[in-house]
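This entry is retained here.
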Amino acid sequence: MRFHRSPVLQLNHDARLLIVASSILTAGFFGIQGLLKVLYILRLGHGPEYVGVFNAAAALAFTGMSVPSGALGGRFGTRRVMLVGGLVMGVGMAVLPLCEMAPVAVQNIWPIASQLIITAGWSMFNVNWVPAMTAVTTAHNRGQAFATGNAIKGLGTFVGTITGGMLPGLFAGILNQSLEAPGPYRLGLWVGAVLGLMTLVPLSLTQRVEGTARLERARSGEPFPLHFVVPMVVYVLLSHGGWATCQAFGNAYLDTDLGLSASSIGLVTGVGQFVAILAPLLAPRLAERHSHGRTLMMTTLGMGVSLLPLALIPHWTAASTGKLGILTLSAIWIPTIQIFQMEQVNSRWRSLAYGVVSTAMGLGYGTISLLGGYVAAAAGYRSLFLLGVGLSTTGAAVLWVFLRRRDGGKTGPRAGTAP
């Protein structure tokens, strides 16, 4: 009888540690703090306009730091920049729950400042994680490595979200406070901050990330691939903007319009994340059958369709269905675009190129976050989600045109496959 090792065990030591580090970070950042920070902001007395500015600050910080993060990784090494980024994130995550202790004059600015710190660190970590994983994997196992890594990160986010949903109720009992008070959410945010700092432990144990990446850069002499990066920037700007309408305002919509409690929001989001945990594992199979480019196009269009229930049916079941679709398809989209870009960009330019595309992600998210709060306040969340449908659909169309031009008008299932 032949036994097969799990995909994680088939990876080398550094690849496994990079996956563990990113999963811990996502549990604290996207899981616990991702769920609680908007609810905390609402309990401080702010409305949807402030939530929009709050989220936009993070996205704009990511936009501004993505290219410098890629350049820093190319100059000092991906591992060192990721370590600094993890530390900066931990500090920023600890700053947010100190808001109520800050002087009154800066309390409105304090949460936004924390967003800038957190996201600057996240940019340094995330932009360099992708080329670091590419450097410690091979063409044979890279697709499985990214799929497995994103699946485990999804598991971390799921566990963090479920935990985050339970923490306010737990701390409300300890503090003898109502769930409408900010105190229970503040303590929950502290838990996320501590978990985020734990990321530094596995990351510090990596050994060969720097040497491998530098050797690949030394062998490279090709110019920066503008012919590929520019169309990808346009596509990502649109598609990520559509996704952002749900990501930035989905929890606020469930809380204010549909009246769900923090635990219910955590449960609804957690169910979607649980289903989405295994979704990245479909990415290699879809890419093999349809190509990475066509898989990106289909998932982007699917995210637009998933926004329709949120826009058209004001009920928690419809919202849950839409969020499920968004979470599942975005879980496939992320490893697909990572590999699609890394395998078509020379190793010398991987950090910088991913930084440029990450800038487009941040710009799309930031623009929607900034303007979306005002759209929601003036015309309702329905109009905001319909805007997301239009952005996603347009993004899918842009990618379709790019793939056809790049492949000379071919429409077969292998069109768009990375060399």
